[in-house]
């Protein structure tokens, strides 16, 4: 693969700015998760929200080691890349070209400003059937982003459509619930955003069940129910890989 691919620093969509964008950034500001450029450069080692970032550091390290073993050029897409820290980490792989996609212009603009690498680009757009008409990817990553899509089946079908033969979809840092847990979690979610003064955000956060992967060729690469993980309570999230 020719690494001379033009690095489009920032692609703009002509679509109308989605309502989700304004709600999401308001939540981030309320949670004090809008980072300075210096803080962003230090992620996932930045101390604020240390438990969260400890978990995300572990999952990032596992994913990086897994991709490194591929030992070939990888065209990687991260869907819902936010401020781009994970895309930037993956761009450190020896042979790759990484695209980070998000509907949050503020974070995409910051990612473009902070992370300047010839094999990395950031795209401001929603993820749907029309987002990538010609591009194809070897790896598609959903890191803490699948919960913002109403249908797991629909979004995975969209992702599979733009995978190269033998490509993989990876889901990390994402909560899953059984039906009873999902109902309770949805109630807590609505209460959380209502207390924040941003109740509309609950309409954009979805509580998925692991059974929604049935019908896909998937593997569980990390199971939080494992004995050691339950003993030490290190990581509450599954790592799911789906092969095309």
Spatial strand arrangement across the major sheet:
1-4-3-2-5-6-8-7
Q: Report the order of strands and helices.
A: EHHHEHEHEEHEHEHE
Please report the distance between the alpha carbons of the first and last residues. 20 Å
Shape: globular
- Give the beta-strand count: 8
The CATH class designation is: Alpha Beta
Helix tally equals 8
User: What is the second-level CATH architecture?
Assistant: 3-Layer(aba) Sandwich
Count of structural domains? 1
Describe the main β-sheet briefly: 8 strands, mixed
In CATH terms, the superfamily is Vaccinia Virus protein VP39
pLDDT averaged residue by residue: 91
Counting helices, strands and paired strands, the structural category is: alpha/beta
Strand content: 15-25%
- In helices, the fraction of residues equals 25-40%
The fold-level CATH name is: Rossmann fold
Regions with pLDDT < 50 over 5+ consecutive residues?
1-9, 13-18
Tell me the Rg in angstroms. 17 Å
Domain Methyltransferase: 76-167
GO molecular function: methyltransferase activity
Protein name: Class I SAM-dependent methyltransferase
InterPro entries: Methyltransf_25, SAM-dependent_MTases_sf
């Amino acid at each position: 693969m020719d690494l001379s691919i033009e690095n489009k620093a920032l692609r703009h969509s002509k679509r109308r700015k989605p309502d989700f964008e304004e709600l999401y950034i308001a939540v981030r500001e309320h949670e004090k998760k809008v980072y300075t450029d210096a803080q962003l450069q230090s992620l996932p080692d930045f101390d604020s929200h240390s438990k969260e970032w400890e978990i995300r550091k572990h999952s990032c390290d596992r994913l990086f080691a897994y991709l490194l073993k591929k030992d070939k050029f990888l065209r990687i897409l991260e869907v819902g890349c936010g401020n781009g820290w994970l895309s930037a980490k993956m761009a450190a792989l020896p042979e790759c070209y990484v695209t980070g996609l998000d509907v949050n212009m503020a974070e995409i603009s910051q990612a473009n400003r902070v992370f300047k690498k010839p094999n990395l680009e950031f795209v401001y757009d929603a993820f749907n059937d029309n987002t990538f008409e010609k591009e194809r990817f070897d790896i598609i990553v959903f890191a803490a982003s699948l919960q913002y899509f109403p249908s797991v089946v629909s979004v995975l079908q969209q992702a599979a459509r733009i995978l190269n033969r033998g490509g993989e979809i990876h889901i990390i840092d994402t909560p899953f619930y059984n039906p009873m847990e999902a109902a309770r979690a949805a109630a807590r979610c609505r209460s959380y955003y209502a207390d924040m003064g941003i109740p509309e955000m609950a309409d954009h956060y979805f509580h998925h069940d692991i059974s929604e992967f049935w019908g896909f060729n998937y593997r569980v690469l990390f199971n939080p129910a494992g004995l050691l993980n339950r003993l030490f309570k290190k990581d509450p999230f599954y790592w799911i890989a789906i092969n095309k």
